[in-house]
Structure to design on (141 residues):
């Protein structure tokens, strides 16, 4: 079974103080690059989120990089072509959705490309809004 992990899962796994940490960490710990995927651009979002928050929750850049390297080895990273990004934008436009929700659509486009049977996220409502056809596959860790 192929699964897809959203950025929110990786961030929660990294933050020990996050109430969602254990569920997220356990999911990643059980993952391997043969069965678990994530969007390649999640690495940038992960780094920005961990290093960009206010102290004392802010991670040092090398801490964030160390975690990224660990995740890099545990997951298969999915990249999108320009045509695939355009397809994601077309899906969002067809639903009449606005603004930053396009980023959820890009993540879901990666999940589609990976052939994910389950899509793990802490943002279930937005993901289901963007991809009603995948609603039953979108779950919390």
């Amino acid at each position: 079974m192929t699964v897809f992990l959203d950025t929110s899962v990786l961030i929660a796994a990294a933050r020990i103080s996050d109430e969602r940490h254990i569920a997220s960490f356990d999911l990643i710990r059980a993952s391997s690059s043969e069965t678990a995927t994530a969007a390649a651009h999640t690495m940038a979002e992960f780094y920005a989120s961990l290093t960009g928050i206010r102290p004392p929750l802010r991670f040092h850049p090398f801490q964030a990089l160390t975690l990224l390297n660990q995740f890099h080895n545990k997951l298969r990273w999915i990249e999108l072509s320009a045509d695939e990004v355009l397809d994601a934008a077309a899906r969002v436009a067809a639903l009449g959705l606005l603004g930053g929700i396009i980023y959820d659509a890009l993540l879901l486009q990666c999940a589609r490309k990976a052939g994910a049977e389950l899509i793990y996220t802490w943002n279930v409502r937005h993901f289901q809004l963007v991809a009603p056809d995948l609603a039953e596959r979108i779950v919390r860790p």
Q: What stands out?
A: The first strand starts at residue 3 and ends at 5. The first helix runs from residue 7 to 14.
